[in-house]
């Protein structure tokens, strides 16, 4: 009887997981399907197959400008977030000090706060400081959002690191900074690269903060939002959305592979030196 209940429970859980995944990702599947449709209206049955919408993307100057802006913002935000994340992750995993948990909770707050509230708050602060809205203000907003993800990835890399390696380096006469640069950073390099990729992907896809903090230079999500007002531009938006979807999936997959490699590496090193 107990075995039957467990079987039914596992069956219901599997069915729930399947329905949840279908509900979450089924609309995304239609994006690449309609992006190759000859008709401008996304509906079934498809009128035909074409790559025209993809071929027109490089011929759109506004799209190229938005792509460049997104690359600048994404690279800047990912580098700044990862550098700050390295410092915070090392502090969290290596030292014990009053208020450590509270500080960590405040850093992670953007993960649970409504993003529109964060965006409005940042806009008010930036205007009070007298800064003009530009790509720089978008980078500041994206850094705030990306730091929690960076710390999460990097903390996993630092936690499994064997401190005896740093102690051995110090015993050999190396300075604290030299030990960090020559011993610690190479060991957590996969986690650092993973953090860069995750932060870049988040910045590339982020819309709400960019919408409030953008000036005259639009990023890709802002460009897509603007094109949705015109029905004739919808096929191009679908094609661009498909490319962004594929790029995000590839970057996050690579980041997860690197994160798992970093975790295995630190575990192996820890077992070797134990």
From TrEMBL:
Its main location: membrane. GO terms for biological process: transmembrane transport. It is found in: Cell membrane. CDD domains: TM_PBP2 (cd06261). Keywords: Cell membrane, Membrane, Transmembrane, Transmembrane helix, Transport. InterPro entries: Bact_Polyamine_Transport (IPR051789), MetI-like (IPR000515), MetI-like_sf (IPR035906). It is a multi-pass membrane protein. Residues 67-255 form the ABC transmembrane type-1 domain. Pfam families: BPD_transp_1. One of its GO terms (cellular component) is plasma membrane. This is Spermidine/putrescine transport system permease protein.
